[in-house]
Every structure is written in C-alpha cells, then in structure tokens.
Design a protein that fits this description.
Blueprint: E1 3-8, H1 12-24, E2 29-35, H2 38-55, E3 59-65, H3 74-81, E4 85-88, H4 97-100, H5 104-112, H6 118-135, E5 140-143, H7 147-156, E6 163-164, H8 168-178, E7 187-190, E8 207-210, E9 213-214, H9 218-221, H10 223-227, H11 230-250, E10 254-259, E11 267-273, E12 276-279, H12 287-301, E13 303-306, E14 309-312, H13 314-321, H14 325-328, E15 331-332, H15 336-351, H16 356-373
Parallel strand pairs: 1-2, 1-4, 2-3, 4-5, 5-6
Antiparallel strand pairs: 7-8, 8-9, 10-11, 11-12, 13-14, 14-15
Protein name: Potassium transporter TrkA
Organism: Amycolatopsis cihanbeyliensis
C-alpha cells in the first residue's frame, strides 16, 4: 500500500526533510507539498523528486500550490487526499529573523525570549489540526514549529498531535555522532528547545544517559552544534525528520528522540512502533520527573504552558509590559488567535524601526564622519 504524506511549508526544513526522504524511503510513498508560492512548491518537488529517481527510491513528490493563504482550503485538500499524515513546518515567525533582518522587533525577542512568539508559532499547527479533525479523521499530525511549547497547546485545544521533530532530536543526533553510537537505543536524552543554546548555568544543561548511566560533558560535546548556523543545521534536523516520517509510514520500530510527544512539554526519548510514539525513559526516571526537567528548561525560553494557560516568565512579562500589557500576564489557549493578531500588529510596527544596537552603530559612524567634516547633527533617535 502506498503511503501518503502532506508537507505544509516550503522553507529550508521542508526542503531538507523532503530531500532526505527522497534518499531513504524503502516503501512507496506519495508526498504532497503545499505552499503559497508556486515556484517554491514546484522547485522543492522537482529537487526532491529528481533525487528520489536518481537514488532509485519509490517516493514521488507532488506540488500543490495554493496561491493564497495555504490553510484557507486545507480542509478541502485533506478531504480529497486523505493522507496518512500531515507534517507542519511553516509558521508565522521565522526563528532566524534576528540574524537575517534585525529590527526593534527582534530586539524585543532578544529581551523577552523566543517564547513570546508562541501564538505565531502555533497558528498554522492549530489550523492544520482543526482541518484534520473536521476533514480527515485518522490522519496523524507531526508539528515542527516550536513543538516543545506548541504541542501542549494543541493538546489543551483537544487537537491530537503525534509529536514534533527537531530540538531534542537534533541534539540527540549530535550526541549519537559524538559518542559513535550505531543508533539511539542506548541513548536517553531529556532536552528542550532552549537547549539549542548554551545554558546560562551548568545546572540548566540537558541531561543524558548512555547504557543507563548519567553522562557528563554535554556542554562541550554540543558546542559545535550550537555554533552551527541554524539554517545549515536543518540538514541534520531534516534527516531526523525523514527517518521518523519513514518509520511512521512503514510501521518500523525506531528508538529516537522527539519534542512534544502526545502533547507533552519539551523533548524525550521515544519508541516509534507500528505508527505510534511512546515514551522510552531512562531506568529509574518517571514521566512526572521527565516532564519536570523540561518544564524547568521551558523557563529559559520565557514561556510555560500549564494545562490550558500560557504563562510568561518575569523577564518576558517585563519586556511585554510596555508594548503589550494585555498579554504580559499570560492568557488562555482559547484566546490564542487574538494574542497572535495582537503580536502581528506590534511586529509590523516594530519591524519599521531599526534594532537599537544597529541604530547606535549608525549614530557612532555618523558622528565620526561629522567630526571629520565639522558638521553637527542630532542623534537619530532624537529625529524620530
């Protein structure tokens, strides 16, 4: 039987995942790539499809350009396709904007923490889950957008989510390579999205076991990964995603690591078997203890999802108190859409302003130039 997968998005992670699937799939699969821009959808499908042909793999990639907001007609598309699974790897906020397009908005994210973008990360996953629930019951959902926090939100909204990809999965892949392990069966890692960055203190580091024994030295072992450009790192993350998706399609057993399994916060070791994902915790560790480790790490991102409530940490609350006091104290998951719209309005406003550091650099350069010419000018911030 030919498996069917919908990939929602055409960014670097979608490309990396599809190109990896094109080289590892052993059983027939049809992959439908959905996105707004026809040229990007067609390009991704062409590249992955050609790789599959060259590799002799039985997987085909089909472009499905929507030409509009890709989720506007997702329910209809899913009703027609009835895929086995949907892989969401598109959101309303790029994790790389702070490096590609710094502005007053990215400066706010630096101060408040990535967690304040949760409503923007969750929007497409929520809408995809709702479309699955209404038009294609039985289709599983894998979410790649901040799954450590978004997947608990999906669960709070009664949207079934199988798991996420990346984050703990990428960290586990790096440790597997560092320790020269043939697979991840002997490795157990508890790690959060926040651990993609060096922790502020040793006690905040991820925790790992090999052969049931707690290990040390993770900060040093993960230093190269953490210094790697995040878009380039998607070549690893995409491969881990492809391995997971392939196992889900074939029913194969796989010992791996994923974020947000079953809507849990953070990342865990899991076992994939016959299309299901279950926890695979280290000996002597309870589920409650594993969740507590991840909830502690979640604070480093500035956001904590508890039940159906979203709470911001003190630093995040302080950063939001000025521009968005109505969100600073947190909100319920049922008001997620309103919170997202409010954040989008603020983002539009702040993107038009330069990053304070860049503005100071410009002022310093202007002052040096003026001192050479004898001109006197007001600082840029006084001219606004």
């Amino acid at each position: 039987m030919t498996a069917s997968l919908v990939v929602l998005g055409t960014g670097s992670l979608a490309n990396a995942t599809c190109e990896a699937l094109a080289t590892i799939a052993d059983e027939p699969a049809e992959v439908h790539v959905i996105g707004r821009a026809p040229h990007r959808v067609k390009q991704l499908s062409y590249l992955a499809g050609t790789r599959a042909q060259l590799a002799g793999r039985p997987v085909a990639f089909h472009p499905v350009p929507t030409g509009t907001e890709p989720l506007d007609n997702l329910g209809e598309l899913l009703g027609d396709l009835r895929p086995d699974g949907v892989f969401v790897c598109a959101s309303r906020q790029s994790p790389w904007e702070r490096t590609t397009s710094p502005s007053a908005w990215t400066e706010l994210l630096e101060r408040a923490g990535f967690g304040i973008t949760l409503p923007l990360q969750a929007d497409m996953a929520v809408r995809a889950g709702q479309a699955i629930r209404s038009s294609s019951p039985g289709t599983w959902l894998v979410n790649a957008c901040f799954p450590d926090a978004v997947n608990p939100v999906l669960t709070a909204l009664d949207i079934p989510v199988l798991c996420g990809i990346g984050n703990v999965g990428t960290l586990a892949a790096s440790l597997q390579a560092a320790w020269n392990l043939p697979d991840q069966a002997r490795l157990h890692l508890l790690a959060h999205h926040a651990h993609l960055h060096p922790p502020p203190a040793p006690e905040d580091e991820a925790v790992a076991w090999v052969d049931g024994h707690r290990t040390t030295g993770l900060t040093e072992l993960l230093a190269t990964q953490r210094a790697t450009n995040r878009e380039a790192l998607n070549r690893v993350t995409g491969y881990t995603a492809a391995v997971l998706l392939d196992a889900l399609h074939t029913g194969a057993e796989l010992a791996t690591h994923v974020p947000g399994p079953g809507g849990r916060p953070g990342g865990y070791p899991v076992r994939v078997r016959e299309g299901t994902v279950s926890l695979r915790l280290p000996p002597g560790t309870t589920e409650a203890e594993a969740v507590a480790v991840n909830q502690h790490a979640a604070r480093l991102d500035g956001v904590l999802v508890v039940g159906d409530e979203i709470h911001f940490e003190p630093t995040s609350r302080a950063a939001l108190a000025g521009p968005l006091p109505e969100l600073a104290d947190g909100f319920g998951v049922t008001t997620l859409s309103h919170a997202g719209a409010t954040l989008l309005e603020l983002r539009t406003e702040l993107r038009s302003r330069p990053h304070p550091e860049h503005r100071r650099d410009a002022d310093d350069l202007r002052a040096r130039n003026d001192s050479a010419t004898g001109e006197v000018r007001e600082p840029a911030d006084r001219l606004r």
